[in-house]
Write a structure and sequence with these properties.
With 550 residues, the chain is of the alpha/beta class. It is built from 13 helices and 26 strands. It has helices at residues 34-45, 70-78, 82-88, 125-138, 187-191, 256-259, 262-273, 319-339, 348-372, 377-390, 468-476, 505-510, 535-545; strands at 23-30, 50-53, 67-69, 90-92, 94-99, 102-108, 120-122, 142-145, 149-156, 159-166, 169-180, 196-211, 220-224, 233-238, 243-249, 280-294, 298-299, 302-304, 310-311, 438-441, 444-447, 456-460, 486-492, 499-500, 517-520, 526-530. Strands 1, 2, 8, 9, 10, 11, 17 and 18 form an 8-stranded mixed beta sheet that branches. An 8-stranded mixed beta sheet has the order 6-5-13-14-15-12-16-19. β5 and β6 (102-108) form a beta hairpin. α2 (70-78) crosses α3.
Length: 550
Amino acid sequence: MGSYHYPRYDYRPTPDATAPQPAEHETVVVGAGPVGLAFALDMAQRGRRVLVLDEDDTVSFGSRAICWSKRTLEIMDRLGLGDRLLGKGVLWNTGRVFFRDREIYHFDLLPESGHRMPAFINLQQYYFEEYAIDAALAHPSIELRFQSRVTAIEPGEDGVLVEIDSPQGRYRLHAAWLIACDGARSGLRRRMGLDFRGKVFEDRFLITDVQMEAEFPAERWFWFEPPFHNGQSALLHKQADNVWRIDLQLGWDADPEEEKRRERVIPRLQAMLGEDRRFEIEWVSVYTFQCRRLERFRHGRVIFAGDSAHQVSPFGARGGNGGIQDGDNLAWKLALVQEGNAPESLLDSYDFERGLAADENIRNSTRSTDFITPKGAASRAFRDAVLELSERFPFARRFVNSGRLSVPAVYDDSPLNGPDAEGFPPSLRPGAACLDAPVRCGGRDGWLLHHLGREFTLLLCPPGGAAPREAAAEVATAFAGAMPGVAVKTIGSDPACDLVDHAGIVADRYGLMPGSAYLVRPDQHVAARWRVFDREAGRAALARATGREG
């Protein structure tokens, strides 16, 4: 591949391989892809030691996942990689939808200002992994072992015995917790005899990366039945290094191996890009849609995340982003359990909450696939009518489904959710991810989300007439002695607040009034909110959010 130089990571000998008894490890992650690496970084930042095992010695081949959502970028920003990802990725907020030979409408995924992150960036998965590996290798609490293939596991009550094949030979270690991030073809899932439930769609798509100079803007372009690919659909995205991702629908009867041959690929690309366009093919693959998941993600001391737990079609960018958010949900809970600050049963909420997210992603991916690839005359007639109407009537555009793009799941009905109150924006109800906004702290401009995460935080809008410092001190007594502790931060227009809402955007987005309060979880999701903070209710909400009270 011309635009990217693949790094090689050496195997580092470990005393585990020659120890007379299996070495003990608190947390072992299998798979150094985006999901496993992000989870490891999160755990390490929470003070926990992590061992990551990967059978390869480099990053993933081909661009693979490329669309990283605003929520994923916010998570990676908290993990210290936000600036590096933004600096290399192609930022985009706009998409365009075409039907046959014309554009029928366009959309803006982030029409409002006051956010640090864009709606999406496009960045090849190999860059994402390289940057995450760099961060992991630099962290003293993370050990990365490449060329280390897991060949067998024996789950038990207190952990998992893991057998590993390495350049030092075969050896065993004991993991108190084993996190399976080993992808769609998960060997751990197979060794535990676990099956997916769901649907495999009878259609195939050609996916290819080409390097070329092109004047196309950094937008998502999706075609239904374009002239250059009659009767099928197509997708175009710009990536870093002038690499462009192209997806072309092939149909179920297409031979995957035949379609990957250059003699088949080049004419298709020339029909789309023009015969005079010069390009270099970097990567070609053929994929089949699958929308499937494990029935349960937690199996005792073995926990599945990312593609090892669930699979969706690529339209909507829900696979990689969903996996990163799996780890974001799991890390703080596992860290609390390991610290003794929460019961092990708290981890069952990971299964519940991320199960909701997986079901939502599968539901949206299934609908997208059904719309993109109608299988009957009636469904095709409906789709085409919707596309025709959407050109002139905005109401019809919500029915167009070229891939409902990834948004963070709201954990409605989660057992961790605390009380809610009337008059707040429904978009920030308990279970929802917090929204970013500009704030000022200590005279320096910054962002709200930079002050949330890693711990429970109570955002308090001081009551009328109350000095922010005194208001915070009084509220803090409600959590005195609670485990884990709660950081109380005042927010408002008063310059004496910890976080100054100088533009009024926080008050508007969060519906803040004097006395209002939000209890925010370590993963930046809302746990509870009050119009007037109540001490007993606040303490009960914390107990509920940490699994100590049902």
